[in-house]
Amino acid sequence: MRALHISPTFYSPDSVVGGGEKYVLYLCQAGASAAASRGLHLESTLLAFGAQAGRRSLKDDISMSIISGTPWSRTPSP
Question: Is the pTM of this model over 0.85?
Answer without folding.
Answer: no
